[in-house]
What does this fold into?
Amino acid sequence: MKKAAVGFRVHSGWSVAVAVCLERGAPVVLHRERPHLVEEFTFRFRQPYHTAESMPLAEARKFVSKAQETARELGHRAICKLQAKSEDRGYKLCAGAVLLASGKPLPEFERILASHAMIHTADGELFREALTRACIRCGLQVVSLKERELVREAADSFRLTEASVLKQVTDLGKPLGAPWSQDEKYAALAAWLALANKDGCRSRKTRLA
It folds into this structure.
């Protein structure tokens, strides 16, 4: 089978996922989806650390742990679905590219809940981590890319200007129509960059204990 990769731009409780293959060296979109990573799409579950902030510590830990478990399972289901759809078209997903925010490790649980700014960060990281683990569970190589460096890194890798990279990734969505927002563009670009790496997207792979 030909190779493909999927890129994720994650939000609280959901993600954009765009699967990309290469035809004659040029990227082509196979699939685009917006999977939910919560069972109930409400603030309570989409912002688990915000919700846990007002709970007793033991209850807060249990709530966040459950939200994490659910996100991992729903992420796994979403990726399995993408794998099956890709294989039906003759492509094998070889990598999952997850866009990061700062990429800095979070402090211990109590310190997160003591800082409103850290709570915002932790909510996003919970869902990124869930998709990362889901990719590994599905046998994909994980490529972690800092979002603020994505366009520059792609330009360097493809030997193009940043403006040219952005134009190409914008043009990818024209045959598809809306939605093709910055979410889809960045997810597609992350997948394209992962797929363009040598040895089946094996660089910068992530392993979780």
Q: What stands out?
A: Residues 57-88 form the longest helix (32 residues). Confidence is low (pLDDT under 50) at residues 199-209. The two ends are 30 Å apart (CA to CA). The domain at 2-201 is CATH 3.30.420.10 (Nucleotidyltransferase; domain 5).
